[in-house]
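[job 0412] stage=fold_complex status=start
inputs:
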Amino acid sequence: GAVVSQHPSWVICKSGTSVKIECRSLDFQATTMFWYRQFPKQSLMLMATSNEGSKATYEQGVEKDKFLINHASLTLSTLTVTSAHPEDSSFYICSARVPGSPLNEQFFGPGTRLTVL
Amino acid sequence: GENVEQHPSTLSVQEGDSAVIKCTYSDSASNYFPWYKQELGKGPQLIIDIRSNVGEKKDQRIAVTLNKTAKHFSLHITETQPEDSAVYFCAAIYTGGFKTIFGAGTRLFVKA
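[job 0412] stage=fold_complex status=done
writing structure:
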């Protein structure tokens, strides 16, 4: 199946700093990637849809100026958490949509655990 | 808005027994239903899926059933093993759109 990687797998940062998380589709080109946030023992919450070459579409309640998304190539999308605060600590997961799939299948990355001190 | 209800939230079974997880969706336009397994500290992995034009699909010890009229779909795991212990998420997708609606998840414990 399609492989999606994320980097880093975990990161610890100080409050007020910015953190960048990368999501890569390794063996296919993804015009659409998704960013999710998951709190402990909860389901995945869609934050935004990232489209290559255009602006991301953010879900209601997600601050676009705080969670900057860039999808500059067909294999890479990045999420930057700006001026991170302890409440931003969470598990961030990306997924990539398989192009041309009639089922809109998506494959998930392994996730990035962010801890803000 | 669209939502998917998933039950139970926690399920504990003895090794070798069967486990059943049930989901109900609200958007009648949904036509694709994947199931994901998420192990601790990892991203979700697709384990089986079913399209709306199919009533049942089986892959070794895992099967999924779909009742479109009732908007119900279920995951069945037979002969459970300790390595089946994980969180399982159901999802409903309308393939004409982009959004995947996830259930709340079921934490499955398989006791050896």
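[job 0412] summary: Chain A has a mean pLDDT of 92.
[job 0412] exit 0
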